[in-house]
Write a structure and sequence with these properties.
alpha/beta; Rossmann fold; 3 domains; six-stranded parallel β-sheet; 20 strands; about 35% helix; about 15% strand
Length: about 625
């Protein structure tokens, strides 16, 4: 079996057989050859093998060469040899979790906070299948991750052995690439390729399935890491003629809008985006995944578009004659009904993944490339214009919409408005603090009312919308960025789904603050029931446990907050305790039970026909 026999995801960088087979397998010396400066650090020699090392030792050596500092995971029978090798080596931190799904989300949070590859490792069967939700989440949100799964011995594959699961088949649609190893000789090449693929082009998760006999197989020497693959070259700079064409179209526009997505943050292109907006005067809207790429509060900023976007962002996109789409896949939560989205607009679409361009909407100027060099080239081109277009009338119209449809909410004191909690955090936390969310109403309140100004300061589940993402992702983010404050804004339903990871945060002294916006409902579903199902609240009355006391039972800290007056002091207390004691601190905040997330585009409606904030009337 070829070490590189694998499937191809054409939607993700068209890997297939393009990947290089030219791997240099240089060798470190045998056990008596002495240390080599150019070789990887070798793990301790196991005492129960005749050969110097095992496949498990080679796995650890490969991980060390990739610069892996921490692994999130759970041990078990099939992966035990690698855990033994990790223990004997002792140089890579491992965090044992309460549930493998939590480990996957921790790896995601780590990757999103740092820009590095997150690593998760589990045993075979149920341990491996518990990663599926996290892999799908990472795939949808273009998060670089390498998952290592144990597998039954090779001679049992396909025989329904104890704790066997076909992880290559199961994860084929939700990974950028995956492998199953058949011999120790494949390990260096596969691991080098896996990390390269996970991080390059449009990032994503990669899975490596390790049969137990490969881990225990002897090898007389550790195989030093090969060079990166040379046959796989994702697009980077963008075609200069297409960029020139885009500049000509941009110069002719009268009502342009820049729509930026998570690809801007992944590419580190936020400065180029801001410079392009500054020198052109074009308004900017950012998707949920793009929040932080452009500073909230800037006069050119429109906020988030789509189902729960600002009214003025949706109206601007609806009336635009040109949309410069950068690193955004134009999904349904942004566009609403495709046939009514931006009906008068032409599109310039910049994306490193060619399969996203033209997938949902026709594109006038496609530019396949990384957002950073492409936007830099556009900035240079715009700066050379003899005369810049005057968009002042367009911006005046947008200011009128902003005054008509400001972001407001109902404040029914003494109940705490959930939006007020988010606004208070926005005024309190430093600009570089990392805010993590679960999925639900609280997520939308955060995207609407928190003033994100820097990239990688929001970590949230976008494409898959995974309830339970928040707590483990916050743990992973804090591990990756220990010098930054990490605050989780979660809902009572979302928090309950991965609550066991409080034990992980306590065990490893991860000091995070958790604010649960507790309305005793599965709030977003309840909102739809109220608005569109005649208030039939089927199975959404949650009645959750007392989360502050649950946190204390896990060994963390907790406090209940029931009035606005308590909130300011409670947040200050939680931040101080998390920083001093390095423990998770949970604030269980009782918020108005029936608060709604508004604005809202009704399902099947046009974005321009949004339901406005309370007290506002939508003009026809």
């Amino acid at each position: 079996m070829s070490p590189f026999s694998h499937k191809s995801n054409t939607a993700r960088d068209e890997l297939g057989l393009m990947l290089s087979r030219q791997i240099r397998l240089t060798h470190s010396g045998g056990p008596n050859s002495g240390p080599r400066k150019d070789a990887m650090n070798t793990p301790a020699k196991p005492q129960d093998h005749k050969a110097a090392y095992t496949g498990a030792d080679a796995v650890v050596a490969c991980l060390k060469h990739q610069g892996v500092e921490v692994i999130f995971g759970m041990t078990g029978g099939s992966i035990m040899p690698v855990y033994d090798a990790l223990f004997r080596d002792g140089s890579i931190q491992h965090m044992i979790v309460g549930h493998e799904q939590g480990a996957a989300h921790m790896a995601e949070g780590y990757a999103r906070a740092t820009g590095k590859v997150g690593v998760v490792m589990t045993t075979s069967g149920p341990g491996a299948t518990n990663l599926v939700t996290g892999l799908a989440d990472a795939f949808m949100d273009s998060t670089p991750m390498v998952a290592i799964t144990g597998q039954v011995t090779s001679n049992l594959l396909g025989n329904d052995a104890f704790q066997e699961a076909d992880m290559r088949g199961i994860t084929m649609p939700i990974t950028k690439h995956n492998y199953q190893i058949s011999s120790v000789d494949e390990l260096p090449g596969v691991f080098a390729e896996a990390f390269f693929v996970a991080l390059s082009g449009r990032p994503g998760p990669v899975l490596i399935d390790l049969p137990k006999d490969v881990m225990t197989a002897p090898c007389d020497h550790l195989l030093a890491a090969p060079s990166a693959p040379t046959g796989y070259k994702p697009p980077y700079r963008g075609h200069p003629l297409q960029i020139e064409r885009a500049l000509k179209v941009l110069a002719q526009a009268k009502q342009p809008v820049i729509l930026a997505g998570g690809g801007v943050i992944i590419a580190g292109a936020h400065e180029e985006l801001r410079e392009l907006a500054r020198i052109t005067g074009i308004p900017v809207s950012t998707s949920l995944m793009g929040l932080g790429a452009f500073p909230a509060g800037d006069e050119l900023y429109l906020g988030m578009p789509g189902m729960h976007g600002t009214g003025y962002a949706n109206l601007a996109l609806h009336q635009a004659d040109l949309i410069l789409c950068v690193g955004n896949r134009l999904d349904d939560r942004v566009t609403g009904q495709l046939d009514t989205f931006a009906p008068n607009a032409q599109f310039i679409h910049i994306d490193v993944d060619a399969s996203e361009i033209g997938k949902n909407l026709p594109c006038l100027v496609p530019i396949v490339g990384d957002a950073k060099p492409v936007l830099a080239a556009m900035v240079k081109g715009v700066a050379a214009w003899d005369e810049k277009p005057d968009y002042s009338l367009w911006r005046d119209q947008i200011e009128t919409w902003k005054s008509c449809y400001p972001m407001t909410y109902a404040d029914k004191s003494p109940a705490i408005a959930p939006q007020a909690v988010v606004e208070l955090l926005g005024r309190t936390l430093p600009q570089e603090a990392i805010v993590v969310t679960g999925v639900g109403q609280h997520q939308m309140y955060t995207t609407q009312f928190y003033p994100f100004k820097e990239p990688r300061t929001l970590i949230s589940s976008g494409g898959l919308g995974t309830m339970g993402f928040g707590l483990p992702a916050a743990v992973g983010a804090k591990v990756g960025a220990p010098d930054k404050e990490v605050v989780l804004i979660d809902g009572d339903g979302s928090f309950l789904m991965t609550i066991q990871e409080l034990a992980t945060a306590v065990r490893y002294k991860v000091g995070i603050v958790v604010l649960i916006l507790n309305n005793n409902f599965l709030g977003m579903v309840r909102q739809w029931q109220e608005m569109f199902l005649d208030k039939r609240q089927a199975e959404t009355d949650l009645q959750p446990p007392p989360y502050a006391r649950v946190a204390q039972a896990f060994g963390g800290l907790g406090r209940e907050v029931s009035t606005t007056e308590e909130l300011v002091e409670a947040i200050a207390w939680a931040r101080a305790e998390a920083a001093e004691k390095h423990l998770p601190v949970v604030l269980d905040v009782a918020v108005a039970r029936e608060a709604l997330v508004l604005p809202m585009v009704p399902p099947g409606g046009a974005n321009a026909d949004f339901i406005p904030c309370p007290g506002q009337k939508r003009e026809e």
